[in-house]
Design goal:
With 306 residues, the protein is mainly beta. The chain is 6% helix and 36% strand. It has an 8-stranded mixed sheet with strand order 3-6-9-10-8-7-5-4, with no helix packed on it. Strands 15-25-19-20-21-22 form a 6-stranded antiparallel sheet, with no helix packed on it. A 3-stranded antiparallel sheet has the order 18-24-23, with no helix packed on it. β1 and β2 form a beta hairpin. This is Putative phage tail fiber protein.
């Protein structure tokens, strides 16, 4: 009679005299025992337990508070990054005291740290970027998931000739920085209402002042080199103020003239008030300039050139 290699189960041979089928009984006992051992092994294999408790007060069973003891489990409820405990012990990101973000349905691995009397979660992806923040087609991970695909598309269509010289920009490629080449000067215009009160403006001699109504404009996006302001000064006359920046004919000052209906000026004061001396100012975001002879509350038009 022969036997099997692994479990020494008996094999009846025709040469046995006589063949004894009762010899197979031991084989069945062996098979039964080994199948039971196999079932017990599967039953006792570590499994991912679904967490009990609440989102921020998790309960796990069959867990020993022994330093380094680990446990795998399925997160039952998302905690949204709020402070969380496991079996009454705080749960932190590795090496920190910050709560991890747990997402329902995902698996987590934690271990107990005796020194801190706390649990640490196995390191995983972190981040607050969402798919709309990441370039289309690029893969990334955040607190919520891994293997996410970005959807952000750059759709700019500006060309270098349309952007001011020296300024940089991007259009459809986030890795390619372009530089503008446009040298055209900027222009802006608008209307407003002459002030209701007066201000004292310093004259060009630096000591005397002149009391005048004024205009104030905000919202510019460039520093003007020339400003022209036209307002009604009564009796069919118009008041004109011209500001010229440093280096121009009238340096840092304003030129004032009052014109009659015939187009001839009736008064002229050149550089009577300094355009860059308080309270007057000219900046890249706006300006305040006097309007000699203008009517309080009247409408004015302004034009500014870079």
């Amino acid at each position: 009679m022969q036997t099997t290699t692994n479990y020494a189960m008996k094999k009846i041979d025709l040469t046995d005299s006589p063949p004894d089928i009762t010899a197979l009984n031991g084989n069945f006992d062996t098979i039964d025992e080994e199948l039971k051992n196999h079932d017990d092994l599967i039953a006792n294999m570590p499994k991912y337990q679904t967490a009990g408790g609440t989102a921020t007060a998790i309960i796990l069973t069959d867990f020993s508070l022994v330093d380094g003891f680990s446990k795998n489990f399925i997160i039952n409820t998302s905690n949204n990054g709020v402070a969380t405990t496991i079996n009454g012990k705080p749960l932190y990101k590795p090496g920190t005291t910050a709560a991890p973000k747990l997402t329902a349905g995902k698996a987590a691995t934690v271990w107990y740290n005796a020194a801190g009397d706390c649990f640490f979660i196995k390191a995983s992806a972190e981040g607050d970027a969402v798919v709309g923040d990441v370039l289309a087609g690029k893969i990334f991970s955040n607190d919520d998931d891994t293997g996410l695909v970005g959807t952000l598309s750059l759709t700019g269509n500006a060309t270098a000739a349309q952007v001011k010289s020296g300024y940089t920009f991007y259009n459809t490629d986030a890795k390619t920085k372009l530089t503008g080449t446009n040298t055209d000067k900027k222009f802006a215009s608008g209307t407003g209402t002459v002030s209701s009160g007066l201000l004292e403006f310093t004259l060009t001699n630096g000591t005397a002042t002149y009391s005048s109504y004024y205009v104030e404009v905000t919202g510019l996006s460039f520093l003007p080199s020339t400003i022209v302001i036209i307002a009604d000064s009564g009796s069919s006359e118009e008041n004109v103020t011209v500001f010229r920046a440093s280096g121009a004919t009238v340096s840092n000052s304003a030129f004032f003239a009052r014109y009659s209906a015939s187009g001839l000026y009736t008064d002229k004061k050149t550089a009577i008030a300094k355009g860059k001396t308080a309270p007057a100012y000219v900046t890249s975001s706006g300006f305040l300039l006097p309007l000699m002879w203008a009517l309080s509350g009247s409408t004015f038009s302004w034009y500014a050139v870079e």
